[in-house]
Structure formats: C-alpha cells, structure tokens
Amino acid sequence: MRTPCPFCNLPRDRIVFESELGLAFRDEYQVSQGHTLIVPKRHVETFFDTTPDEQAALLQLLKIARSDLDRLFHPAGYNIGINDGVAAGQTVMHMHIHLIPRYDGDRADPRGGVRWVLPDRAAYWDKN
Predict the structure, then answer these.
(1) 112 in a structural domain
(2) pTM for this predicted structure
(3) Cα–Cα distance between 127 and 68 in angstroms, integer?
(4) Which of 43, 94, 96, 98 is catalytic?
(5) 3-state secondary structure string, 81-117?
(6) What is the DSSP-derived secondary structure letter of residue 4?
(7) Is 128 domain-assigned?
(8) 96 catalytic, yes or no?
(9) What is the residue range of 18's domain?
C-alpha cells in the first residue's frame, strides 16, 4: 500500500502562507531556525512537471516567506534548493523548494553553499 503524501495532507495549522496554487510551511526537520518549504498544491513530483503558473506562484511564495523570515529571525543569507529526483536526495516525492535561512557563524566557512552536496567537489578554490 502506498504511503499518503505528507504534503498533500498537511494540517492547516502548519501552513504559514497560501496562494491559489501553492503553500509555504516550516520544515518538520529544520536544518536552521525558520527552514521553510514551498510546495505546489497539486501533487507533482518534479519541478519540471510544474506549470508556468505554478512556478510563478511558488516564486511569489518564496519571496513572501523570505520577507517573513527576515522579519522574524534576521538571517544573514539564504540557501534555496530543490532536490529533484531520488539521485538528488528527494525523499518526499512531492516537489518542494527549501528556503534555508543562514546565520553568521552557523558554519565556519560557508563558501560553496549548495556545492557541499558533493563534498569532494565543493571546495573548487582549493583545486589549484
């Protein structure tokens, strides 16, 4: 039996922002304070299967969520990412955008950002 999609069955009290086509809510397993997920309401596995209207709605929710996080937590920066497919680390097969606030000092050397998904290749500045 197939497990129900957790993003299609979110309790209303988890949703922090909503539009006609998308939702924003805090990640249940936050990697930093305020870690937020932005998802289309329609169940779709990959970013590449979203419609142009859904993409625009998700980007608008991303901006709204960022403004809210700036107000609430005052992060120094953000990582924005999509794990698209099992090989990319996607574990919930409902497309979602991670908006991860970054804070001064949360990592000794934050250079490379999302490049660290493949640690052996991240520090390109050390390759010479």
Answers:
(1) no
(2) 0.92
(3) 39
(4) 96
(5) ECCCCHHHCCCCCCCCEEEEEECCCCCCCCCCHHHHH
(6) P
(7) no
(8) yes
(9) 12-106
**pLDDT, block means (10 residues), the chain with 128 residues:** 86 97 97 97 97 98 98 98 95 97 94 82 72
Q: What angle (nearest 5°) sits at the alpha carbon of residue 92, between those of residues 88 and 98? A: 70
Tokens representing residue 18 in the block: 């909503």
User: What's the structural domain count of the chain?
Assistant: 1
The sheet that has 15-18: what strands, in order across it? 15-18, 22-26, 36-40, 97-102, 77-81
Domain CATH code at residue 38: 3.30.428.10
Three-state DSSP at 3 gives coil
* Cα distance between residue 80 and residue 60, in whole Å: 14
What is d(CA 119, CA 56) in angstroms, rounded to the nearest whole number? 32
The answer to the question of residue 25 being in a domain is yes
- Domain assignment of residue 113, yes or no: no
